[in-house]
Amino acid sequence: MVISYDGSAFRGFAPNEGVRTIGADLRSALERILRSEVELSVAGRTDAGVHARGQVVSFDAQSGAVRPDEMRRSLNSLLGPSIVVREVATAPDDFHARFSARWRRYRYRLLTSEVPDPFLSSTTWWTPEALDHHRMADAAHELVGTHDFTSFCRRPKGRPDASMVRRVTDARWTHEPGEGRVLTFEITATAFCHQMVRSIVGTLVDIGRGRRPTSTVTVALAGEDRSLAGQLAPPHGLILWEVGY
Amino acid sequence: MVISYDGSAFRGFAPNEGVRTIGADLRSALERILRSEVELSVAGRTDAGVHARGQVVSFDAQSGAVRPDEMRRSLNSLLGPSIVVREVATAPDDFHARFSARWRRYRYRLLTSEVPDPFLSSTTWWTPEALDHHRMADAAHELVGTHDFTSFCRRPKGRPDASMVRRVTDARWTHEPGEGRVLTFEITATAFCHQMVRSIVGTLVDIGRGRRPTSTVTVALAGEDRSLAGQLAPPHGLILWEVGY
After folding, report:
1. Interface list for chain B against chain A, based on CB atoms closer than 8 Å
2. I need a surface site. Which of A158, A162, A239, B42 has the fewest CB within 10 A?
3. pLDDT for the residue numbered B173
């Protein structure tokens, strides 16, 4: 399945007792349609408040149980407006949304206008201060390549030895066509560690505001120490854009 | 003041006991800043769920009480993300947001894609059925001019003789640049009567779907009878776009 969601009202993707999550809503709708228990695999777990445009989810179901098109329509009528199933298709037996993915792409949007915008308040980070785009572009460029992202990652609990080495294949800032007020950061990597994009964006915005030198990225990558990175950008500007297989 | 708001969480503009309205939130923030009672005039009252980009509001205040720029900042910090004050300026003594307005412009947005979109669910009407754009454009053209809009208006209570004659200067459908899935109806008139845009859009969509003949608009304008018009389009696709003085 390819799904889109507005994460504003959810405590992230991963099902979690007592709170509303994307995964729990999706699983319960799916179980109602398939009339059996289902285990979901997801390409990129998103945190509370984070959105997705092209999230990919896989699961095992009895062959021919429900036609993919019919399943999409039934899911969308059960799920309500915040979660939309864009596509449902049968995948090869060994397909796994997370382990088969070759790359993930995220976007992070800044609203740079002097006044905020009620229609962009849940999908952009409002940053009205002057930003030096050249410095932000230069610093973004330093991220490309294979690096240890320890400084930009929240280490998973109970896994002190987990590798934080990731390969970033592209990282750039662009203005949205016809929307000069919105400055978008797009980053593509084979995989991301926890809070990596938000930590990178927070650091790049600090650099753009002149609060940190452009060299911060290079120094943080080499130093492998979280205190070397900048602030954590808020979750609502982040969207999991696309996953490649 | 020029203000924008996402009307999703509000019961319209007009202050009303016991429910949350744009006008009540705005007035209470303004009274807190000015430390005195304030009466608001508004260019176009919007119904529950209807949005605004360029709504205009006027009020009387002691000259020099608070600097306009400072008032804008204070209002925005009190109001939260759904209501944004874009501009505050001193107007001539005889200015009145409603009575001085020469024209109002509304937009109504349809999302025409096969699947819905979680990021457009609160600002567009999802109409996945095939729509004949030529028929909708022809019917829209019939609205331009001075007509009695009785068939498209909800008559205000207790005012059986109120005139429903309005002058529409422009009415057209366009695709948003870079967003082929969104079909936008823009209509400009000297003034609008209650539910006029939603009733017109509902009728035009009926025509686009082939459920009513293109002549419906002409027949309804001549017949002055509400039963001649089509369905009422839902409020969340409507936005008060701009007001001219």
Report:
1. 4-6, 51, 72, 76, 81-86, 115-119, 121-123, 177-178
2. A158
3. 97
